């Protein structure tokens, strides 16, 4: 048992404010480890913009294999003001997602009590759902071509590749997750069946076939455009949403906003049979770097998701309670520089409440 | 001059509540015509679900050529509960957009005084921008294929086709529109350059090239996911947005929500050299059909956009003033059944104020 509860974690603090928020996340994780009697063996990786500018390398040779030796990955943020957008995201973040086959991007959208949401008349009882975003195919496969590039006759094609295999495992994950979650017991497919008749025909057929195996779960379908309206107007309609990579990217950012913004939103890149990666979903926020003002709660919540994934559910619940207490009793705002506390003070508070229990 | 101000309008009331809202729209258009001295020659087309169920036809033979004989098209709504989703949308709505080469979908997002928005702390001074959505290519081109359909090895490909020709004319439209609009003088490209590196590389290159011809206009770029957050949190950042067909579809529905919902949101499908089509952007709302409770303001605003497009700017402004007065002084809500007035009463009020002036 003791052995089993020793977790090897690859930590990639990354760029900008990544290291600052990861520091607080680790503080809280260690507090939980102390209280609940497990051990974290942390290996740090210096991947990111600085290393790239220094060495020209994004992920060094053998880097992906190194990651595979861990039980989970804890990521800060990737993105550097001096590196052309796209390079680090593709060569580090997306590469890890794809090569470790982290086929689900799991994004809880949960408004904690005391957290300000920009939408009217909705509270924590209304905003509590999870988006299961396919994370390894679709438009993110990167397929496409240019024809006659740079001429007036140029054509640029971008392809969305969807496989039965990839779509089915993602949908199945959503149904399993919904059952385990045991709340409204409803899975909503979000797509665009009326226009994208290849991709979404496959998704739709697969969805209703898999659904038959889950007679206890209600199913629903919504177009992606309408879904954005409902996130703002009727977020209480949702329980578990399943969607493709691109639509998932879009709706989860909107979801982050209604749950209080980038200061609090976390996600997991899940391979249920492999190594998963957890991250605050905000960027590297260069303008706040080194100022001790960024909100570390998103990174702390990513750590909480990681513990839940590793089976340390009790520890995860303790962190969540501590986060809720800090949101409700302490923080003035979720935004960088407006919290009323510094980054490290917020980390200290959550760590303290996690250790003591609330 | 008299001759020039005689407009041939193709009216397609369509399905569900389409005919009800178009009736009120026509009432207001005629009021404007009476006051401002132009003439509307209306030809009605019975295209839609009922006709399809009766005859099997969506657009009858020669129908598109008929449309071409008009100065503009005024559309209610397409979509019937007894017809499989996708058929009518593709064979009527999208077909008209494509065959008449209506290459811009123009969507003003403007919160009128007195209209309830679901987002906090924002008023009419904050929500006033326009989305220029490419309307004839991208993922809507419909390209793609299935491989091994129905087997566990199935692959479904969906293609986004983007041409320099199509992208450039759309971007140019956005800059021209921004200059004419003469407000913040800023055009924001909304895309996903960091992941969709074929399509958005073409868009980005074209955008910055065209921008050089408009030194008076500020340019900006935002990822589509972040844009959704900002619509809710900082809508005041935007002036004119230009984006592709799919992203435009998504963000304009979110835009509709923050401007008060489907009861008020209108759009134009524009071919500056051809025949354009104007529509309320909500659906056919089957459950409200025939009850005289649906909000006709979206259809009325579509009519207003049509007059503006036809060059009847004074009449368009008069309708807008009437709409604003009705929103501010009369309507309790923008939602069907909750307005405090019936569909026809709202139409009567706007027509009266348009005729009298406010
Ligand atoms: C940084 C970017 C490549 C990434 C994505 O598009 O997936 C991000 O937006 C996310 O959602 O994790
Ligand atoms: C009905 C549908 C085909 C259409 C679209 O996707 O363009 C609608 O959502 C719109 O935005 O006008």
TrEMBL record, chains A, B:
<dbReference type="InterPro" id="IPR050501">
    <property type="entry name" value="ICDH/IPMDH"/>
</dbReference>
<feature type="domain" description="Isopropylmalate dehydrogenase-like">
    <location>
        <begin position="8"/>
        <end position="350"/>
    </location>
</feature>
<dbReference type="InterPro" id="IPR024084">
    <property type="entry name" value="IsoPropMal-DH-like_dom"/>
</dbReference>
<keyword id="KW-0560">Oxidoreductase</keyword>
<dbReference type="GO" id="GO:0000287">
    <property type="term" value="F:magnesium ion binding"/>
</dbReference>
<dbReference type="Pfam" id="PF00180">
    <property type="entry name" value="Iso_dh"/>
</dbReference>
<keyword id="KW-0520">NAD</keyword>
<keyword id="KW-0479">Metal-binding</keyword>
<dbReference type="GO" id="GO:0051287">
    <property type="term" value="F:NAD binding"/>
</dbReference>
<protein>
    <submittedName>
        <fullName>3-isopropylmalate dehydrogenase</fullName>
        <ecNumber>1.1.1.85</ecNumber>
    </submittedName>
</protein>
<keyword id="KW-0464">Manganese</keyword>
<dbReference type="InterPro" id="IPR019818">
    <property type="entry name" value="IsoCit/isopropylmalate_DH_CS"/>
</dbReference>
<dbReference type="GO" id="GO:0003862">
    <property type="term" value="F:3-isopropylmalate dehydrogenase activity"/>
</dbReference>
């Amino acid at each position: 048992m003791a052995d089993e509860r020793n977790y090897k974690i690859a930590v990639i603090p990354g760029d900008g404010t990544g290291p600052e928020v990861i520091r607080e996340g680790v503080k809280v994780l260690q507090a939980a480890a102390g209280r609940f009697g497990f051990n974290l063996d942390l290996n740090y990786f210096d991947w990111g913009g600085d290393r790239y500018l220094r060495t020209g390398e994004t992920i060094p040779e053998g880097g992906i294999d190194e990651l595979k030796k861990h039980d989970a990955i804890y990521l800060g943020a990737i993105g550097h003001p001096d590196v052309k957008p796209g390079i680090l995201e593709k060569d580090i973040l997306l590469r890890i997602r794809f090569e470790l086959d982290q086929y689900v991007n799991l994004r809880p959208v949960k408004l904690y009590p005391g957290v300000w949401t920009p939408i009217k008349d909705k509270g924590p009882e209304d905003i509590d759902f999870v988006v299961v975003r396919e994370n390894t195919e679709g438009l993110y496969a990167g397929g496409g071509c240019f024809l006659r590039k740079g001429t007036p006759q140029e054509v640029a094609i971008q392809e969305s590749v969807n496989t039965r295999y990839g779509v089915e495992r993602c949908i199945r994950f959503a149904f399993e997750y919904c059952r385990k979650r045991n709340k409204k017991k409803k899975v909503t497919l979000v797509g665009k069946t009326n226009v994208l008749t290849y991709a979404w025909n496959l998704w739709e057929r697969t969805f209703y076939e898999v659904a038959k195996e889950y007679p206890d779960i209600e199913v629903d379908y919504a177009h992606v455009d309408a879904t954005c309206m409902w996130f703002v107007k009727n977020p209480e309609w949702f329980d578990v949403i399943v969607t493709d990579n691109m639509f998932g990217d879009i709706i989860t950012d909107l979801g982050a906003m209604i749950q209080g913004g980038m200061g609090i939103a976390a996600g997991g890149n899940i391979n249920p049979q492999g190594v998963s990666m957890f991250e605050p979903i905000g960027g590297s926020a260069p303008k706040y770097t080194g100022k001790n003002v960024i909100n570390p709660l998103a990174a702390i919540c990513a750590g909480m998701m990681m513990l839940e994934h590793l089976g340390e559910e009790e520890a995860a619940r303790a962190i969540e309670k501590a986060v809720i207490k800090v949101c409700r009793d302490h923080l003035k705002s979720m935004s960088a520089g407006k919290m009323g506390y510094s980054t490290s003070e917020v980390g200290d508070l959550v760590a303290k409440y996690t250790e003591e229990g609330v």
